[in-house]
TrEMBL record:
Molecular functions per Gene Ontology: lactoylglutathione lyase activity; metal ion binding
CDD domains hit by this protein: PcpA_C_like
Presence of the UniProt keyword Metal-binding in the record: yes
Keyword Kinase (UniProt): no
Organism: Fontibacillus phaseoli
Superkingdom as given in the UniProt entry: Bacteria
Domain VOC as annotated: residue spans: 7-131, 152-269
UniProt KW keywords: Metal-binding
Entry protein name: Glyoxalase family protein
Taxonomic lineage from the root: Bacteria, Bacillati, Bacillota, Bacilli, Bacillales
């Protein structure tokens, strides 16, 4: 049987301000901060995870905030647009909400779907699109009730410097199905119900520059450790330069850069975010891997204090 990913596991982004990121993704978009930890490779930097109530694969956006870091430029070799799925009938709610927070919004149409196109407060490009697929949100925060809440990723728009090569990987290696082409983009679909619609440019896009407001990598789902190991063997056998499998506490990861310049990861669904704190308390405490625990006081002293808070616009 052909090995296939069911879609996006998570997307990881560079930003400058930790608190501004919490305010936007929890305060404006209503997502739950499900894990507050550090970049395991640079413990002076937070690693913040936002998603649905449980932090389910297919809902998770993660951030490396670095105050004073340079701004990036979105372009080839990156995820260009991160798309979120909202419930059917919630388009007008979200349009009004974004405008109320002073966010400039464009209404667009792609592949016969109406989308709300905007930037977050770091410059990252986002879209909201109504989708019937995917479980309804069970989380509410601020002015976002659960019945209007973001379900998770709708998908992503990939900006490839060599789109034919990226498209070949999506279809022939990751097992996605090409389902259409419209204008400058081809559309691919996975078997999952969230993070399952991937668009890619059909003409090359000039390389962007990494930095705040750009995506560092996109991760695809593997259902378990056995499948994850099989992905590594498959990719290495096809000549991709794949990293060893890395324990990220909440999932195992491997990384490779595809030929269009985009950094891809494959991540396991288990063990998930409740492995080291109760499900009802996710994101409340700074969680450190055991090898950093003896440095907790120093690490915490070097990190910007943050809080999940209801914003003024939702208090009026």
């Amino acid at each position: 049987m052909t090995q296939r990913t069911t879609g996006i596991h998570h997307i990881t982004v560079f930003v400058q301000s930790a608190q501004a990121t919490v305010d936007f993704y929890s305060g404006v978009l209503g997502l739950r901060l499900v894990k507050k930890t550090i970049n395991f490779d640079a413990p002076e930097v937070y690693h913040l995870y936002f998603g649905d109530e449980k932090g389910s694969p297919g809902t998770i956006i993660t951030f490396f905030p670095s105050p004073g870091s340079r701004r990036g430029r979105i372009g080839g070799g990156q995820v260009g647009i991160t798309t979120y799925a909202i419930p059917e009938g919630s388009y007008d709610f979200w349009h009004a909400r974004l405008l109320r927070f002073g966010i400039s919004v464009e209404t667009r149409e792609h592949f016969s779907e109406k989308v709300l196109h905007f930037r977050d407060n770091s410059g990252l490009l986002l879209e909201l699109v109504e989708r019937a697929e995917g479980s309804a949100s069970t989380w509410s925060f601020g002015g976002v009730p659960a019945d209007k809440g973001i379900k998770g990723f709708g998908g992503a728009v990939l900006y490839s410097a060599f789109p034919e090569k990226t498209a070949h990987l999506l279809e022939q290696v990751l097992g996605m199905e090409k389902v259409g082409q419209e204008g400058s983009y081809a559309r691919y679909k996975t078997a999952g119900d969230l993070g399952n619609i991937i668009d890619i440019n059909v003409k090359p896009i000039e390389y962007g520059a990494g930095g705040a407001g750009t995506v560092h990598h996109i991760a695809w789902r593997a259902k378990d450790n056995e499948e994850h190991a099989a992905w590594r063997n498959k990719l290495a056998g096809l000549g991709y330069q794949v990293t060893p499998i890395v324990d990220r506490q909440y999932f195992n990861a491997l990384y490779f850069r595809e030929e269009g310049g985009i950094l891809f990861e494959i991540a396991t669904d288990p063990p998930g975010f409740a492995r080291d704190e109760p499900a009802g308390k996710l994101g409340e405490k700074l969680m450190l891997p055991e090898w950093y625990e003896e440095q907790r006081a120093l690490i915490e002293a070097n990190l910007e204090p943050i809080e999940v808070r209801v914003l003024e616009e939702d208090k009026e």
